[in-house]
Amino acid sequence: MTDIDAYIEAIKINWVKRLTDETCANWKIIPTFYFREFGENNLIFKMNLNSHKSLENLKNLPTFYFEILKCWIKNGGGKTKVPDNYRDIRKQVIWGNQYIKTCGKSLYYSHWVKENIIFVNDVIDDKGEISHKILDKLKKKQNWIAELFSLRKALPKSWIQKLKGNISKHTKINITQDIKMFCNGLYYNLDKIKFKEIYNIIIRSNKELPTVATQEKTLKEYGSLYDADIPEIERWRQNSKDFIKTDIFTDILQIIKDNHCVLLTGVSGMGKTLTAQNIALQLCYEEGIR
Known about the structure:
This protein is mostly helical.
C-alpha cells in the first residue's frame, strides 16, 4: 500500500530533480530567482546542511520553496558522510556545512560565493593552509580578516592536519557538480534515479511505521497498516455502488498513471471526495497498485 507521506516527499524530491536538470523551462525562472540568493548553479542543493535552520535567510523563502528545501534536507539531499581523507575534505562545500561551524553556526558569506569561492579546495594554498591570499579573489574586502579568521576557526582540526599532508599539497582535485542524496548510508546521483526509486529510498529511511488510527482502532489492534484501512475502504466500496464512471473519471485515472498525482478542485458537494475514493479503489483492486 502506498505510504502517502513518503509519496508526497518523493514528489518534492522529484521536483528538485526537475529543477536542477539541464533542460530549459519557463517554470524554472521563479524558483531559480529565489534559490539564486544562496549561490548560482543550484548551490543550495549541494550544501551539506543538517537543518533548515542552518542558514538564517532560508526562512525568507516563499513557503512552497521553503517546504521543498526542508524535505530535501530531511531526506539527505546534499549531505555527505564525515570526510576522512583529504580528497573528500577538499570537495566539501564550505557554506551551510554541518561540519564547518563557528559558535555552533554554519558559515555563509554571500560575497565569497559570488566570487565562486565554494569548496574547501578553493581556499587552500600550496601549503595546505587557508591563505590570506584569498583577499585577491574578493572584490568586497570589508570584514575579510574577521571572516577569514572565522573560517579558519570553523574548519575541524583533523581536517587541517590532513590538508597539510604532503600528498594533499601535491594533488590536484577534480570536483564534479553532481547533486546527490546521502540516505541509508548510500549516495544517489539525483539525475540518475527515477521517481519510483526516490519513493523507495524514502520508504527505506523511514524505519518506524506511523501510528494509524481508523474508526477508533489503532495499528496494533489491526496488526498491519493495510488491515487498519479495511473498515474505511469497505465504506468506500459501499458508496461506489451508485457511482457512475464518466469521461472525467477516465481522464483523471490516466493523469495519475502518467504523472503520479492529480489535484481535484471544485465547489463543495460536486463529488471530489467520492471521485477520489473510486479512483483509489480502481487503482487498488483493478490495476493492482498498492
